[in-house]
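Thread: quick sanity check before group meeting

JM: Hey all, I'm pulling together slides for Thursday and realized we never actually wrote out the predicted structure for the chain we discussed last week. Dropping the sequence here so it's in one place. If anyone has concerns about the input, flag it before I start.
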Amino acid sequence: MKLVDKKQIKELLNKAILGLGVLMFIGVMIPGVRTALGRVVDIFMFPVLQMIGESNFFLLLSVMAIITATYSALIQKYVVDQSKMKEFQAKMKLFQEEFKEAQNTQNTYMLKRLEEQQIEMLQEQNVIMKEQFKPMFYIVIISLPLFMWAYYYINGNSMSSIVFPFWGEQSLGDFVFFTFQYWIYWYFVSSLAFNQIFRKVMDLI
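JM (edit): ok, ran it. Output follows.
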């Protein structure tokens, strides 16, 4: 009975986290919600920024990117079934090799068999893609509030600058193109770079 209760509690907790992630993801599309969320997080983040120095805002962005990358990698490791992912990748690789061989040798029997198998592979791939999509709602619970705070702060304050390769010194509040600001570019590049490092360290796919 206790095992069942624990399982039910875990399922309810997962649903609650997913629900919160979905609501937050939808909510930040509304300007008023973005501002409100930014103001709440500012209560905690602005004292940290004052310690670092507002002119070093890009350093805090880098720390936020590391937090996002670390959290994302951990979620991927413990939420997604890595053994299932690796098993599917190995199966897909073998399928591609057999399909290529069948095409090269014009083996119609093998091609027909592989075409039937391909339907099953696509169904399994859809399940895997859903598994990969699920952690996104866990990740936004941490990353979106930080991101919205940066958005809130930058739109209400003078910005520091950073020296980019080839671009030279640029204000983080200026636009790279359209509405894409330099701070967003710096945040995502830093986050992706650290995420790749952590995924390699944790042996993630």
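AS: nice. Strands lie at 161-164, 168-171, 175-177, 180-181. The CA atoms of residues 92 and 121 lie 8 Å apart.
JM: adding both to the slides.
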